[in-house]
Design brief:
About 5% of the residues lie in helices and about 55% in strands. The protein is mainly beta. Strands 3-4-5-6-7 form a five-stranded antiparallel sheet. Strands 1-2 form a two-stranded antiparallel ribbon. Strand 4 and strand 5 (about 60-75) form a beta hairpin. The termini are far apart.
Length: about 120
């Protein structure tokens, strides 16, 4: 939640609405410490809904969508992953001659989880 309705610039008050975003998601891992590649894969899914601070022609701009993804474990690194996700959504409205946008977004990332600062028991 962001309170934009009380925003004031140097020229005075503006006509902004409060914005908010709600998201929910989950992740499934068969066996995080498994020895096989497929056991350590991570599967993810989520939903989101947001209202923008913009109010155009008495219409609130909404953004809603779904995301699906998975994490591929790197072979020799403990808990390091290559993450791939697809997000599909819709933003805007066609009411009052406004624009609705439907989009698909692809995301690729790498997560490094190494034990750099772990105190060793034996030298």
């Amino acid at each position: 939640f962001q309170e934009w309705s009380t925003y004031k610039s140097f020229r005075g008050e503006d006509s902004l609405d409060n914005s908010m975003r709600v998201s929910i998601g989950g992740q499934y891992v068969n066996d995080a410490k498994g020895t096989r590649f497929i056991e350590r894969m991570q599967f993810r899914a989520g939903l989101f809904y947001s209202q923008s601070y913009l109010n155009l022609r008495n219409n609130t701009i909404e953004d809603k969508g779904i995301s699906l993804g998975f994490g591929l474990p790197l072979r020799k690194a403990y808990q390091s992953m290559i993450n791939i996700a697809l997000e599909a959504g819709q933003r805007g409205t066609t009411e009052s001659t406004l624009i609705r946008e439907r989009y698909v977004r692809a995301v690729i990332g790498i997560t490094f989880n190494e034990n750099w600062f772990q105190k060793r028991r034996f030298d």
